[in-house]
Amino acid sequence: MCIVAAVDGAEHAERIAREAAALAAAFDLELHVVNVLTRSRFVEIEHGSYEKRGETVPVERVRNSAQEIAERSATSLSTPPTCVGLVGDIATETLEYADEHDARYVVVGGRRRSPVGKAIFDSVTQDILLRAERPVVTVMRD
Prior knowledge:
By secondary structure, this protein is α/β, with parallel strands linked by helices. 49% of the residues lie in helices and 23% in strands. 30% of the residues are buried.
């Protein structure tokens, strides 16, 4: 069992990692910090690399980049977590990872939106909340 923190590399990501670390410490569980790069972002990276160097980017290198983002989000933690980089749909990959590692909680970031904003704009946090089969903790932005 573990706590899974889903981070995106934004400034708020460190706060998500800290809250997840506090949960992990409270339950005496391991912390996994996960960053998922979307397939569209992967295609952008690969397209740029092909234009510049004439070569494609291995998926493993993109996963490593995603892992580095997770690691940067966790630099202020006193206990180093397991940092993971994945590629795909953010909600799907996060929830599959949480299922595979029997996460006790999934910790995600969120922001306040109006009812219209919720209806119009896609929200990864909302997708995770609706599809998760385990408790989800949402750390709201200030």
